[in-house]
Design a protein that fits this description.
alpha/beta; globular; six-stranded mixed beta sheet; 2-enoyl-CoA Hydratase, Chain A, domain 1; about 240 residues; single chain
Length: about 240
């Protein structure tokens, strides 16, 4: 396995770290392949891993989809590989905590929304910039975001593309808590440690029951998004030239 997503295990907690800090952890197809490999492995390790932390190296969780990779023609192994990887995160037996530092834009926000819990800091900046680039969502934004913050807030976030700071993320129900940036990693670990003290059987059952309750309509919604999202606009190439 490569080095674009690192894994460390300690005391029943697996930490996955996006490791492209020089690229603000832009979500390349190669990164997704590594992330999926880790997720598929952790899924089977219910006796070794009770909780997962998803974090990132450097000053940003992720600037979003790797636009340079798109321009270079890089492709994932299958059409909906990234979206299905997010589904796999959401369906992990173990609770997953997203620890969000700095930028968390568009595809990165969709990735964070696939996690069960979210911690942010005073440096966190969240936005959905699909509209800026003339793109449309296929990784679950239209389904997971309104379920997290409510329909009217999701519309505001998606329609305006405005940047949301850490404290506001908590106020609107997008994140669980906002702490000083210097305390963010420790706060994520402390939450994970509190979680793994509980029965892992109960954790898995709670997560499964909550997921299935939410899935009564979400599955059809996710499929609708993937099948009906029209893709790039004619001026996307021009928009990307200035990136």
């Amino acid at each position: 396995m490569g080095q674009e997503v690192l894994r460390t295990d300690k005391n029943g907690i697996a930490t996955l770290t996006l490791n492209r800090p020089e690229m603000l952890n832009a979500l390349s197809p190669a990164l997704f392949v590594e992330l999926r490999d880790h997720i598929d492995t952790i899924k089977s390790q219910i006796d070794q891993i009770g909780c997962v932390i998803l974090s990132a190296a450097g000053r940003a969780f992720s600037a979003g989809n790797d636009l340079k990779a798109i321009q270079a023609g890089e492709r994932a192994p299958s059409k909906h590989f990234q979206a299905e990887t997010l589904d796999a995160i959401e369906q992990l037996p173990q609770p997953v905590i997203a620890v969000i530092r700095g930028h968390c834009y568009t595809g990165a926000l969709e990735l964070a929304l696939a996690c069960d819990l979210m911690l942010v800091s005073d440096t966190t900046r969240v936005a959905d910039t699909h509209g800026k680039w003339g793109m449309t969502p296929t990784w679950g934004m239209t389904q997971r975001l309104p379920r997290r913050v409510g329909l009217i807030r999701a519309k505001e976030i998606m329609f305006t593309g405005r940047v949301i700071k850490g404290a506001e993320c908590v106020a609107m129900g997008l994140a669980n808590s906002c702490v000083a940036d210097s305390e963010l990693d420790a706060s994520g670990l402390a939450m994970a440690e509190e979680i793994v003290k509980n029965s892992w059987h109960t954790l898995r059952t709670d997560k499964s029951l909550l997921y299935q309750a939410q899935q009564q309509h979400q599955h059809d919604g996710l499929q609708y998004e993937r099948q009906n999202s029209p893709g790039f606009t004619p001026d996307t190439a021009d928009r990307l030239k200035g990136f």
